[in-house]
Amino acid sequence: MARPQTAPTETSPTVPALSVRTGRRARTWFSICAAMFVVAWGGNQFTPLLTMYRTQRGFSELAVNTLLFAYVVGLIPSLLLAHRLAARWGTRNPLVLAVPLSALGSILVAAGSHNPALMFAGRMSTGVALGIGMVVGGLALDSLSTTSGRAPRASAMSLTSGFAVGAGAAGALAQWALAPTTTPFVLHGVLCAGGAVLIARSTTATARTRSDQSERNRTPLPRAFHLLVIPAAPWIFGALGIAYAVLPPIVAAELAGFDSAFSGVLCLLSLGLGFIAQRLAGRTPKRSGPTRAIGLTLFVVGTLAAAVAAATASVWLVVVAASVLGIGYGLTLVGCLRDCERSAPPGRLGTMTGRVYCLGYLGFGLPTAIAWLHSSFAIGTTTSLLWVAGAAVATNIAGAVLLGITRKEQAG
Hints:
- This protein has a single domain, classed as Up-down Bundle (Growth Hormone, Chain: A), CATH 1.20.1250.20.
- Helices cover 79% and strands 0% of the residues.
- It has 16 helices and no strands.
- The longest helix has 31 residues, at 381-411.
- It starts with 14 loop residues before the first helix and ends with a helix.
């Protein structure tokens, strides 16, 4: 590419050229965040509709939670392979593909409101789109960022805001719209069209990531990643699964027909507080460890509160538990992403980020697992949630202890 010609210094200062480049960078940054926002919207808009599908379509608790988890079936392979797409095609082209895939998922779910198989396919398509958006969008922001910690924070906030607004809008439309099984998905399709135009017009988010296979094979991932970040990852979205898939049915009988709206409110509340927590989280990489640890502590506290809410069927305690879980989600996600950014060897950031999201989304299997334990073994929700809290404490303490032991052995 030819270099642009410049006039002599005395007649053409460099500030305007820098301003143009800065403006293009800002527009590209916004386009990437918008693409991540709309695919996150598509991923979470189904959640507040669970109650509607149970009551109006006659789906069982296990069936709706399986549909909630269905997009993880498409999401996990996408998360594991998305960094390879970025290495081969750059970061813009996969994002251009992700947004229409998310719209296709909404179309299939809307068309298959009486057909669980078609809905399952739609949820899988949504999952593939979300996986690409998460990993490739994060890599694109990282390539544009000049400030440490800014890219993972923007990535987390774009996703969280999409999760929150999508769920809130879908819950409201499911409660009051004339076609509750169609209108939320039509709205998302319109937003996807706008997001696709924005990302297709972006011009600088095209850099390929490093893809030297031999270099990746030679560079192992940090031990701290395996012993601190990996044990924390499953509880990131596990917190949200508990907040707006396990908690709403507990108090459905107390809501006098406003169960869909209440589910949307819980989504907005938990994700909104998670967004605020991410916004207020410290900006320096040194704070990633405490941020992750505080988030995990809040996850355990929120899960214990959810267990008490399940035993008492208290609406207010459900609200409190969802709030604490939302903040825990927000801080744990930011802490894990910043740990990846801070410690990733050359060419491994996409791999590490993909694994965090992959394990994180396994946490969305908690509602399905809890429903299965209840239907198959008559294990109550309270008992299951206590087990979840205990598992989170045990795995993360074990990881920290093992890391401490290995560091002492190396020092000795």
